[in-house]
Design the sequence.
């Protein structure tokens, strides 16, 4: 047994004082500090002064296979960016294949910023070994893509192989899962088959959805920049699905939809109704000039850094700072709390795993942040985000990774 205590412990939306947690790999007791010390007299006590202890942070969306990108890909416009991805994808992926350090560095950036669990979208499987070696928990989203009917079989088989390979390593730290690339890039037949697997074998599912205005234009009217793109690369001028048909396919599988920047109120309502979640990636959306997610009506809001393909770091603290700036019209303190919940308790809800909460029998995943002297408890979440470039300490499954 170990004991951990900090000036404040974030539990059930409140910042508790004079409290401590007794833990092994999981949380065993949450009690007053003195009570736990009396009960376990010879136990190691981790004590963090001028600090706040949170459930370990969850970065729900990243692409590690693009970790070699620094300034190769074109920012500023989604279509220009996508064009540059097609053009330089092989080059970037080869860099990572030749030097896995790119991926380890990216994972370490997340770790230092307090991330104890991350969702990795894997398109090729070349991030698998790194994801198995990291001390963090990984939701490993094997991605499926393929809009052209002639290619469905080949791409479906490739997806199934990667999924099977990842299943071998299933553990409490490594969770194989499924990602659907997007409505414009996955044929409805392929989507149906993959979701059948997800439902039967109870995999978590994630999908990019309505990221850019071009995507909506293409799905609704078969025109715009995506028309040129599909004519150029796929010799087709019709989308394979529409927005409603795509959304309907997920009715019985609670899914994490990434971006949704261009979703309208009705679509957000629909997403809420079917118990889906939305992963907000503020910096990526800004860097690709996709717009700003309307966060107000969202029932379960999550946060992601996206990959280094469309971001300048994988720090979840920097992502939260950026979100505070992006949503400038929101009440500052409330927005800070919303962001903390997006990387903790809301993540737990979407993942249906015993993480993201300070609660008995939940995993002892902790993110400890420094806190300057504050006068108003209502400011704790805000200064947690503003005053830290790195986490002060971090525990995964009861093990001190940074102490
Ligand atoms: Zn993505």
Sequence:
């Amino acid at each position: 047994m170990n004991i951990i205590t900090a000036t404040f412990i974030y539990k059930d939306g409140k910042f508790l004082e004079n409290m401590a947690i007794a833990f092994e790999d999981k949380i065993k007791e949450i009690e007053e500090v003195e009570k736990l010390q009396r009960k376990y007299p010879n136990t190691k006590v981790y004590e963090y002064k001028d600090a706040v202890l949170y459930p370990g942070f969850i970065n729900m969306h990243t692409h590690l296979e693009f970790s070699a990108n620094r300034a190769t890909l074109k920012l500023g416009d989604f279509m220009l960016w996508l064009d540059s991805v097609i053009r330089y994808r092989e080059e970037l992926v080869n860099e990572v294949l030749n030097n896995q350090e790119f991926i380890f560095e990216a994972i370490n950036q997340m770790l230092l910023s307090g991330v104890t669990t991350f969702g990795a979208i894997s398109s090729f499987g070349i991030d698998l070994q790194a994801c198995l070696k990291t001390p963090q928990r990984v939701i490993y989203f094997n991605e499926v893509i393929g809009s052209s009917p002639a290619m469905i079989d080949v791409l479906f088989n490739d997806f199934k192989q990667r999924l099977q390979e990842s299943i071998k390593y299933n553990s409490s730290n490594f969770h194989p899962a499924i990602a659907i690339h997007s409505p414009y890039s996955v044929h409805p037949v392929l989507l149906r088959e993959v979701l059948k697997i997800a439902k039967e074998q109870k995999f978590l599912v994630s999908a990019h959805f309505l990221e850019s205005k071009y995507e909506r234009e293409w799905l609704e009217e078969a025109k715009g920049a995506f028309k040129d793109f599909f004519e150029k690369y796929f010799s087709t001028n019709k989308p394979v699905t529409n927005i409603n048909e795509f959304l309907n396919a997920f009715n019985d599988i609670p899914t994490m939809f990434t971006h949704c920047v261009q979703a309208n109120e009705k679509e957000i309502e629909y997403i809420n109704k079917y118990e889906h979640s939305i992963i907000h990636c503020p910096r990526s959306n800004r860097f690709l000039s996709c717009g700003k997610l309307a966060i107000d009506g969202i029932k379960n809001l999550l946060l992601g850094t996206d990959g280094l393909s469309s971001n300048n770091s994988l720090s979840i603290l920097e992502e939260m700072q950026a979100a505070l700036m992006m949503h400038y019209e929101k009440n500052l303190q409330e927005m800070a709390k919303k962001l903390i919940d997006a990387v903790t308790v809301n993540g737990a809800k979407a993942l249906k795993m015993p993480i993201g909460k300070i609660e008995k029998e939940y995993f002892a995943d902790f993110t400890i942040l420094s806190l300057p002297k504050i006068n108003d408890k209502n400011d704790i979440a805000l200064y947690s985000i503003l005053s830290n470039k790195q986490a002060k300490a971090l525990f995964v499954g009861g093990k001190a990774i940074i102490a």
